Amino acid sequence: MRKVKVRLPATITDFGPGLRSLGLALSLYAEVELSPRNDGNLLVETEGEGAGRYALGLRHPVVLGMLRIFQRLEQAPPGVSVRVRNNIPLDSGLGAESAFITAGIIGANNLMGSPFSRSLVLEMASEATQRPDQAVTSILGGFTAHSWQANNLIYRTLSLTPFRLILAMPRFSHYNRPELPERVQTITALANLSKQPILIDAMATGDIPTIASVLNEDIQGEEIRRRISGFGHVAEVARLAGAQGITTSGGGPAIIFFAESHHDRIAEAIETAFENINITAMVQVLPIDTQGVVVSLLHSI
Prior knowledge:
By secondary structure, the protein is an alpha+beta fold. The chain folds into two domains: 167 residues, Ribosomal Protein S5, domain 2 (2-Layer Sandwich), CATH 3.30.230.10; 124 residues, Alpha-Beta Plaits (2-Layer Sandwich), CATH 3.30.70. It contains nine helices and eleven strands.
């Protein structure tokens, strides 16, 4: 009996001037395992970050992704076991829910013999998540760009010299992610657009100082930073410890720190800074993921 295992990385999106256009995959993963059952039951088990957060059954995001495939094919296994192991914090701006839905789509497609092409799976995931930047980046890995209009998806993998960065994930009981502004001043939009090619080229060469120089040229950044308690204090401590660039991901509250060296020392300083203002935070030094989705086809006895 066929068993499918899907691993997808977290995604950094809406950073610097790359609002809803660029994505960077991070080596922090959600893993989903699907196994067909003969008894007609749907069994969902979860562990790790966010375990117990979603209803276990038809309303779980992985299952919602699976249903996209089954409904399109108008067929499904009699039953399915779903096991989710997740290391991506929920409600963090790191694309956890998009990874769940996308993993469900990819896993179900493989469970049914891969009737849909990779391009079509990318389109289905982009539509289902309503975050094509996250779906495309989690599938392709590395550094990506996309355009999504009228259900037409155009995407590219961009050149990247891999590097390590520092992730800080403050744990708030409630965080209000800001909505995208309906209107933006022309001068602000032009400043944002002018920095995108610089960021893309700097990512290709691994030029951290240049990446850092354009990170604050963003449309939403000031409002996001205002909503993250202690952001100013932590950012100042990180800079004194050697961080060269600081941004947020996916509307926050995840904070990303760029540095050429001394990553562990900077991470320790960030963790201490959060402790000093009584905020619990997960702080990790992580490499960029360059693989994207990893699918394993197994056979259970």
